[in-house]
Design a protein that fits this description.
649 residues, alpha+beta, Threonyl-tRNA Synthetase, Chain A, domain 2, BirA Bifunctional Protein, domain 2, eight-stranded mixed sheet, 20 helices, disordered C terminus
Length: 649
Amino acid sequence: MEKIIITFPDGSSKEFEKGISGFQIAQSISQRLAEEALAVEINGEVKDLNRPIYQNCSIRILTFNDDEGKEVYWHSTSHLMAHAVQDLHPEAKFGVGPAIQDGFYYDIDINSSLTEEDLKEIEKRMVEISREDSPFIREELSKNSAVDFFKKKSDNYKLEILSGIDENSEKISIYKEGSFIDLCTGPHLPSTAKIKNIKLLTVSGSYWRGDEKNKQMQRIYGISFPKKKMLDEYLQKLEEAKKRDHRKLGKELELFLITNNVGSGLPIWLPKGTIVRETLENYLREEQKKRGYEPIITPHIGNINLYKTSGHYPYYKESQFPPLVLEDGKEEYLLKPMNCPHHFQVYLSKPRSYRDLPIRLAEFGTVYRYEQSGELTGLTRVRSFAVDDAHMFVREDQLKDEVCDVIDLIKIVFTQMGFKDFTTQLSFRDDNVEKYGGDISMWEKAQKEIKEAADEMNLNYIIVEGEAAFYGPKIDFIVKDVLGREWQLGTVQIDYVMPERFNLEYTGGDGQKHRPVVIHRAPFGSLERFIGILIEHFAGEFPLWLTPVQAVVIPVSQNYFNYAEKIFLELKRNNIRVEFDQRNEKIGYKIRDWETKKVPYMLIIGEKEETAGNISVRQHRKGDLGSLPLNDFIEKITEEIKTKYYSTN
């Protein structure tokens, strides 16, 4: 029998018979690995575990511990769910059903609205099918055969997908699992028996292919795990996430408002939320000031030609509000989708010399995106948001040092906000030339510089091809919150393309014209999204320096209002954000109420305090701290605010 050589992740290799499967290789290593194996990665591509291997290759056996293994597990569970829906609702038609970051979903066209009881029935049927140990079988067809097959099923959704596939493409793959057959590239699990511990979570509306002009379908979300303990821990985390939901806490803590009277996805910052936002802005302004940034302000709209020059208009056309056409029909304007083209106009406003560089322009600029209504979520997915945008215009010899300085700033900001656990992704271009501007030499140079800067700053990074911006490579910072959820926040991008498009120049030491390199940078990204994440990360209990109300003065009764008011005014004079509770309620009720409002310090004023000229201090969650002079408290809280404000430990 002909042999092939299989190379393993540790660099070792071994001979096997040609046509061996990933499952058989796993069996040869250990029975436990064979039991846990879900799929196999062959030369970097994830394949079905039972797929024969005919050539020398590098492989990795994937389990649920691998991200790729989870993706296969959840993708197969989405097919299992569709099978169950088909059994219970034979009239149902199916859109797409991918794995997502946490679980899976399937878009389903069904006559009736699915209820909580329906989800329980679907879940029950999924368990039954899982126990049948039904194999996932891959078949390959020509495009014509695939079209004929789905025509017989009157499956217009799959036919529409097929219509977008080139006639000369390779074989079309379908997967069969029992009576359920789906158009799918795979890969999938060996059988349904691998799928255990299933929970269907929610059902929501979704438009076919994300287009509001298309029919609305029902999207069922779910999760599954190989072990019950994993599911229990996930559901517990989900319950904690519900308690921390920024939409719920935003309302309870009076931070922001979204009302249909203004419009979906258009947040209004209430006074307390505005304090949080302005405190964040001022913190970053101070950090930027130390590093030589210059503040600017640009308009909320711009001539459409500005975005055509930058290339944003064709690239982001689908996610922009329609152009505003003036009465004469000669000029069109867009709600600003990006700040960068405006910043380039500032650079172009006067001649620049090599001595002027680097130039650092910064703005909290509001931008607008037409997000579909079904995708809007509180502050984390909105149509109007402010970006802490800055653009550095540098000489090539300054590029790496400037990128390193930006990385340092982002690291300081994240640590200050309590995000000490973060990784980075270096997003590079792939071979699809239509996605990117500029020539390949520019890209190679930019990618080299950004990697060298990441290495110099000791970033923990992975390189992902195909995720770059259309104008250049970037570093994306991914933080992990207290629930272990990952969020992409800060970004640094290198740009050789825009200086060409906008003809940005400076006069060099040789008297000749040269192009600067542009660095795009945003530590927070969207302020709305960042604050939404902060609310959930802190469960609404912001650090003292950031919280909108730092202390509240609570008189035990009206007899002590005069002394309490003196305390209140003295705290205000010392720039402490304080409130005065003058309600005619029992002291126990007031304390409980302010505890739910998550105010860090409560200052209780009664006869004993007035006589001694002191205050009694209660700290949120910790309770009574005892009696102390007001000046001592002011010194303590001022130092705590200052320390939290500047500490980067």
